[in-house]
UniProtKB/TrEMBL annotation:
PANTHER family with a match to the protein in the record: INTRADIOL RING-CLEAVAGE DIOXYGENASES DOMAIN-CONTAINING PROTEIN-RELATED, PTHR34315
Superkingdom, natural source: Bacteria
Annotated InterPro entries: Intradiol_dOase_C, Intradiol_dOase_core, TAT_signal
Protein name per Swiss-Prot or TrEMBL: 3,4-dioxygenase subunit beta
All copies of domain Intradiol ring-cleavage dioxygenases, residue ranges: 130-205
Keywords: Dioxygenase, Oxidoreductase
Gene source species: Paenarthrobacter aurescens (Arthrobacter aurescens)
Length: 295
């Protein structure tokens, strides 16, 4: 069994020395601005991330519960409800975790040439090792809460996550010289950006997740702490079960049942309601994950 990380994501206290300490108050906006908010929050077709079939998942995908995909008949209602909720609620601030590689805890991959890329499956620079696993396309739509949830064009996101064995490049034993599954992208005019990656594994003590930092602009990404938000994407239970039953995820299959979404020390407070990705796909064709990120 894969041993748990000794300092796995322990919450905001772990990051207080390096992370801007600001908590968002949660609340859903009601009233006369509802229609406008919905229009602003629902991602448009332009600039969307490609799914394995080449279609955008950000606006068409249906919210999946933690136990099963939503039924097709509920797609319109659930999609609108989620867009409205996420537009009025800023993404919860979360821990960077012990393996950010943003200069706040050891290496700083953000200063490396080549980190700005859509496909983050391979290492870059001194190595070209490629992380193996089920393909995953992640699309984030950044929304500006202070500007009526307008698209946050020109912002940048640094994303990182573990490999199929639950290990992190640049930190875990044997991976100190690898920097795969880390990358930066700039949001387009619709506030959208996409990463091509692999499905993260599961390790003891955490629900499967993807870390990300939102920066005001690309020019700010090299300075740790100059961030608009630090949070994590929670992956859905049904997708995890399917992926972890496939070849190469044997350790994840053993570890996954040990932590539930509600017992996770990051998502457990609210069940990850504002961080649970909308997901679709298959092991054979790859998966898509989409999330509205209001900052």
């Amino acid at each position: 069994m894969t041993t748990p990380h000794p300092n796995h994501d322990r919450g905001l206290e772990f990051d207080l020395s390096t992370l801007l300490s600001r908590r968002r108050s949660l609340g859903i906006l009601f009233g006369a601005g509802t229609a406008a908010a919905l229009a602003a929050c629902t991602p448009t077709g332009g600039g969307g991330g490609a799914s394995p079939s080449g279609t955008s998942s950000a606006s068409a995908a249906v919210t999946e519960s933690t136990t099963a995909a939503a039924s097709p008949s509920a797609s319109a209602t659930s999609t609108v409800t989620r867009a409205f909720a996420e537009c009025g609620v800023e993404i919860p601030e979360e821990t960077l975790g012990p393996y950010p590689a943003d200069g706040s805890n050891g290496p700083n991959v953000l200063e490396a040439s080549g980190v700005v890329r859509r496909d983050i499956r391979s290492s870059f620079g001194g190595s070209t090792t490629k992380a193996e696993g089920v393909p995953l396309t992640v699309t984030l739509t950044l929304l500006d809460n202070s500007n009526g949830c307008a698209p946050l064009a020109g912002a940048a996101v640094y994303a990182w996550h573990c490999d199929q064995d639950g290990k992190y490049s640049l930190y875990d034993s044997g991976l100190e010289n690898e920097n795969y599954l880390r990358g930066v992208q700039e949001a387009d005019a619709n506030g959208q950006l996409t990463f091509s990656t692999i499905y993260p594994g599961a390790y003891n003590g955490r629900w499967p997740h993807i870390h990300f930092e939102v920066f005001e602009s690309m020019s700010n990404t090299t300075a740790a702490g100059q961030v608009l938000a630090v949070s994590q994407i929670a992956l859905t239970e049904s997708a995890c079960k399917e992926v972890y039953a496939s070849q190469g995820y044997e350790s994840s299959a053993r570890n996954f049942p040990n932590t539930t979404l509600t017992s996770d020390n990051v998502f457990g407070g609210d069940g990850g309601i504002y961080q649970l990705a909308t997901m679709s796909g298959s092991v054979a064709g790859g998966y898509t994950a989409a999330l509205n990120v209001t900052v």
